[in-house]
Design brief:
Blueprint lengths: L7 E3 L5 E4 L4 E8 L10 E5 L5 E5 L8 H9 L2 E7 L2 E6 L8 E6 L12 E9 L3 E4 L7 E6 L4 E9 L5 E10 L5 E6 L5 E3 L4 H6 L2 E6 L3 E6 L8 E12 L5 E17 L2 E4 L4 E4 L4 E8 L7 E9 L10 E6 L11 E7 L2 E6 L8 E12 L5 E8 L3 E6 L4 E10 L8 E11 L5 E10 L11 E6 L5 E3 L4 H5 L3 E7 L2 E6 L8 E12 L5 E8 L3 E3 L7 E8 L10 E10 L5 E9 L11 E7 L5 E3 L11 E7 L2 E6 L8 E12 L5 E8 L3 E3 L6
Parallel strand pairs: 2-9, 11-19, 21-29
Antiparallel strand pairs: 1-3, 3-7, 4-5, 4-8, 6-7, 8-9, 10-12, 12-17, 13-14, 13-18, 14-15, 16-17, 18-19, 20-22, 22-26, 23-24, 23-27, 25-26, 27-28, 27-29, 30-31, 31-36, 32-33, 32-37, 33-34, 35-36, 37-38, 37-39, 40-41, 41-46, 42-43, 42-47, 43-44, 45-46, 47-48, 47-49
């Protein structure tokens, strides 16, 4: 199977209908050629039979004398669009330019095949297109308010001898470039510009045709973005021989300069600070130059954050465009003047702190008696700070009981004094703190013992939690102005500084309590001097000489220092000679008497003499030991081992110090 191929030169199918005085561009392209990718082109023109050379891409001497001036001025030129395509551009085409145009390409092929030129007929017709604006003047100025409606008109007509169609479009320019609003195309279709599709579908942007070839642009709900210069842009189109539409000319006329006065909503004051129980007064001002009949709808909102949207904010009060105000007990909304609306919040409290803003809508009457909302705006938020009413009072801390020894009680009273400017809506609570007392400038952070909230519920800190739960540390409210802290048995680890903080709480409108003030007392130092415990025990033998079978008797006298109300326990021991095999360790525990005077036989194992030893308390600090019917095996050194006890927490006894007496010897060999 063989294919025939060769160079193909193409121009549009004619005739090409163009309007006198316009710029014409005739394209020419070449394909299926050999040689370099960039091809050259020659253009020639014929009115009847002979062709006259116009211009060439490669030969500067190609132009005939008839066209040299026009080519030299640039009225006729070639514009290359690619390596294989150019356009012949004729500026300000005239009737004399009507005729046949031939595009030729010099051969670069190895063999001559295909066509090397192509012709197209150009027909130049008279300009029958007329575009105009208002008959009164070429351009008008419109000053409108946001939300208004306006209409602009232009007239477009053509008397072209050819069957042409008009494309009429409206454009606006608010900066440096024109934007398409809405067009009626040459094919009879409406085409909204970018960004105007939704407004076209809703009917806010319309284009209507009228008598005398007029085209009316209608704009409803005008916004500030609609301000600018408006023009009517009309292009004339003809269907070519190949069935495609070709634009043959375009004209425009500026119709109006439209300015849109923006409607603003502002709150007359900026950041506001008011005192609790006072009134908050804010005014919402609507700025508009609207002179006709209108009514405003106003809504006041509250938000905890300036970034909240209306859906997140709380609606406080509203007034519709019929001046009907929604109900509220402590908030009122009044119409001060035509464009000002006042919000009054009475008896404010701390919870009213936040951000306030108003939303306003403008309504205008329609011909049927109904009202139509034309614009809606929201003000910037205004920060409102409500300062709590602080009651004036002092706090005094004193110790009603201070310890002199360990395990003594401690009691501190925190009292509220010099109370002024308090109301029934104020109550007090206390927090207790401990701080270890260090010498020098060392700083130790305070530790929370316990605190009370607004309803006097006790909240425990980490320090002493177990002792508090066991009842060893007690917190109480003695009276309306006095709170107490009691340590039942004070230990050395409790020594340090104590202070209290009295908190004032204010009751809000929703019956919640919010802390309004803290006052801290001066610290009270709990301290007592500690000295080493001392214990002395003296043993005395009552009968200096005795023989076996007699009674051995000795007393132990005890003295102590720096021990609070001591009691003593006593243990009698005996050190036997090393020859005594019954006790290889040398020391025997015989009998004991504890601090509650309970007697116990320890290691006394002589069953024949169970009642042979007696230990008794003679007085608080004196104890007597008797051993009846002594035997040779009883020989040894006898001592009193004494332990001093002091009262501890919870009725328990705490061991303080131990003491050992001098030895008393039983030696039958030397006894008389």
């Amino acid at each position: 199977l063989a294919f025939c191929r060769g160079r193909i030169v193409r121009v549009p199918k004619g005739p090409l209908i163009r309007v006198v005085g316009t710029e014409v561009a005739i394209p020419c392209s070449v394909s299926d050629y050999d040689g370099p990718s960039e091809q050259n082109f020659d253009w020639e023109f014929s009115r009847e039979t002979d062709f006259v050379r116009i211009v060439s891409t490669w030969d500067s001497t190609f132009t005939s004398e008839e066209y040299q001036k026009r080519v030299g001025r640039g009225d006729i030129k070639l514009r290359r669009s690619s390596n294989d395509a150019v356009e012949l551009v004729i500026r300000n085409i005239q009737p004399a330019d009507q005729g046949r145009y031939k595009c030729s390409t010099p051969s670069t092929d190895a063999t001559v095949q295909g066509n090397y030129d192509a012709e197209v007929q150009v027909k130049v017709i008279s300009d029958g297109l007329s575009v105009s604006g208002s008959k009164a003047r070429s351009s008008t100025s419109l000053r409108l308010s946001e939300g208004d409606s306006f209409k602009l008109r232009c007239s477009a007509i053509t008397t072209s001898p050819e069957h042409t169609h008009l494309h009429v479009g409206w454009q606006v320019k608010s900066g440096s470039s024109w934007r398409d609003i809405l067009s009626l195309t040459h094919e009879g279709k409406f085409q909204p510009g970018p960004g105007y599709e939704e407004r076209y579908r809703s009917g806010d942007i319309r284009l209507d045709t009228g008598a005398n070839d007029t085209y009316r642009l209608s704009v409803s709900q005008a916004s500030s973005a609609d301000g600018g210069a408006y023009r009517c842009l009309v292009s004339e189109w003809v269907r070519g021989a190949d069935g495609s539409w070709q634009r043959i000319q375009e004209k425009s006329v500026e119709i109006a300069a439209v300015s849109i006065q923006r409607t603003d909503v502002v709150i007359s004051t900026s950041n506001v600070s008011v005192t609790e129980r006072d009134s908050l007064d804010l005014t919402c001002n609507i700025t508009t130059d609207r002179s006709g009949i209108f009514q405003a709808e106003v809504m006041w909102y509250f938000s905890a954050s300036p970034d909240d949207t209306l859906s997140d904010a709380q609606l406080l009060l509203s007034m519709d465009h019929h001046s009907v105000v929604s109900d509220s007990t402590l908030i009122s909304l009044s119409h001060v003047d035509r464009n000002s609306y006042r919000l009054l919040v009475r008896d404010v409290d701390v919870e009213d702190s936040g951000y306030y803003f108003c939303e306003a809508a403008i309504w205008v009457p329609l011909h049927n008696g109904s009202w139509h909302k034309v614009v809606e705006r929201t003000s910037a938020p205004v920060s409102v700070v409500v300062t709590a009413l602080e009651p004036d009072y002092d706090v005094f801390l004193n110790a009603s009981k201070t310890p002199k020894f360990s395990d003594d009680p401690t009691e501190l009273n925190c009292r509220i004094t010099n109370v002024q400017d308090t109301e029934a809506n104020i109550r007090f609570s206390v927090s207790w703190y401990y701080r270890q007392h260090l010498p020098g400038d060392d700083v130790v952070a305070e530790e929370l013992l316990a605190s009370m909230d607004a309803d006097w519920t006790l909240l425990l800190g980490d320090r002493g939690r177990e002792r508090i739960q066991n009842g060893e540390i007690i917190f109480s409210k003695k009276s309306a102005d006095t709170f107490s802290l009691r340590i039942q048995w004070t230990s050395e680890s409790d020594r340090g500084d104590y202070f209290c903080v009295i908190s004032a709480w204010s009751r809000h409108r929703n019956n919640s309590w919010v802390k309004s003030k803290d006052v801290t007392s001066s610290p009270v130092n709990i301290f007592w001097a500690t000295q080493d415990y001392t214990l002395t025990v003296e043993a005395v033998k009552l009968k200096p000489f005795f023989v076996a079978g007699h009674t051995f008797e000795m007393t132990c006298k005890v003295s102590s220092k720096n021990i609070k109300t001591p009691r003593y326990s006593v243990l009698i021991t005996a050190e036997k000679p090393l020859t005594d095999q019954s006790n290889p360790n040398g020391t025997t525990r015989i009998i004991s008497l504890n601090q509650d005077s309970v007697v116990r036989l320890e290691d006394w194992t002589d069953q024949t003499r169970v009642d042979g030893v007696v230990l008794e308390k003679v007085q608080e600090n004196e104890f007597r030991y008797r051993m009846y019917q002594t035997q040779i095996s009883d020989a040894g050194l006898y001592r009193c081992v004494v332990t001093a006890w002091s009262p501890g927490g919870g009725g328990m006894w705490r061991e303080a110090v131990n003491g050992l007496s001098n030895p008393i010897q039983i030696d039958f060999q030397t006894s008389g």
